[in-house]
Structures are given as structure tokens and as C-alpha cells.
Amino acid sequence: MAYVGIIMGSQSDWPTMREAARVLDELGVPHEDRIVSAHRTPDRLWSYGKEAKSRGIRVIIAGAGGAAHLPGMMASKTPLPVIGVPIETKALGGVDSLYSIVQMPRGFPVATMAIGAAGAVNAALMAASILALSDDSLAERLEAWRDALSASVPEVPHD
Ligand code: RP5
């Protein structure tokens, strides 16, 4: 059963959102990956939001670009924590996505990450850290992942 739902507004978001999927795979966190567009498939958004919790999903990662309404609409529809990933855009560099996702009205939060691939990776780590609160084995794997990243950073720069 998937614990994390990775959703995105378009197939074109997958190269970014796949980074979240990759990190969840590394951490052994089961996830499902779906295209759910706030504008093009609103009925799919509605039913996904209505059913995610009862299907066993615990955290939703939502990536969208431009007029990026998917994370916010999903936060309105589900009590689950929603982590938003602003997709980088050609026209405005992803600032449009960032502002669309981050400026939620009070009452319906979206935990908004950085623009692009860094945001997708961090969304996966944030989802994992939420799940790790009630999963000691995952907490250990997450700590090891972080330690490995720290160990990979050289102390001295090289040419
Ligand atoms: C948004 O529109 C999607 O999240 C995507 O980032 C953007 C462009 O979508 P495509 O025109 O590439 O399908 O809904």
C-alpha cells in the first residue's frame, strides 16, 4: 500500500517529480505517482482528495507549474498534509508556480518547497520525516541517508 501520493499537473512535470519518487525509493517508502490536473481533470482531483486518506495515503506531494492550483485545491479537499513543489516554468522561471502555491489563505496550509528538482527532493525528505515520527526503522534509514549526504561533501574544493 502506498503511503505517499505524488501527484502532478501534467506529464511534463514528471522529470521534476521523478526526483521525489527516486528519493522515496531510496528510503524504502511506498508511493504512487499520478497525473491530477486542477484545471484539466478537476473531477480526478476531487475524487483523489476525497479518497486518499481512506486508501491509506498519509502524505501528499503535489507538483504544479504556472497557475499552480493543484496543491492548494488538494489541501482544501483532504485533511492529509500536502507538500507543494513549484515546477520551474519557461515564461517566469517558476516564480509564478511558487507564488501560486505558497500564498494560501489561512486555514488550508501547503508546505511549500523550493522551485524545481531541489524542491522535489526536499518534498520527499519532508514526507519521509513526517512518516518517520511513527516508524523507527524509517527514521534510521532517513538518518543514514542524511549521514551519507554529509559524508559525500568534500572538505577541500578541487579543480
Ligand atoms: C500545469 O501546467 C502543470 O503542472 C504544468 O507544470 C504546466 C504545463 O503543463 P503542460 O502544458 O506541459 O501539460 O498545469
Mean pLDDT: 98
CATH topology group: Rossmann fold
Described by strand count, sense and barrel closure, the largest sheet is: 5 strands, parallel
Known CATH architecture: 3-Layer(aba) Sandwich
**What's the number of extended β-strand segments?**
5
Which consecutive residue ranges, at least 5 long each, have pLDDT under 50?
Answer: none
Strand order of the largest sheet: 2-1-3-4-5
Structural class call reads alpha/beta
Which ions and ligands are bound to the chains? 5-O-phosphono-beta-D-ribofuranose
Summary keywords:
EC 5.4.99.18, 45% helix, PurE_dom, lyase activity, globular, isomerase, binds 5-O-phosphono-beta-D-ribofuranose, N5-carboxyaminoimidazole ribonucleotide mutase, 159 residues
Architecture overview:
GO terms for molecular function: 5-(carboxyamino)imidazole ribonucleotide mutase activity; lyase activity. Its EC number is 5.4.99.18. It holds the Pfam family AIRC. Keywords: Isomerase, Lyase, Purine biosynthesis. InterPro entries: PurE_ClassI, PurE_dom, PurE_prokaryotes. The protein is of the alpha/beta class and 159 residues long. The chain has a single domain (4-151), classed as Rossmann fold (3-Layer(aba) Sandwich). It has 6 helices and 5 strands; from the N terminus they run βαβαβαβαβαα. It has a 5-stranded parallel sheet with strand order 2-1-3-4-5, sandwiched between helices. α1 (14-26) links the parallel β1 and β2 (31-35). α5 (117-132) packs antiparallel against α6. The model has no long low-confidence stretch (mean pLDDT 98). The structure holds 5-O-phosphono-beta-D-ribofuranose.
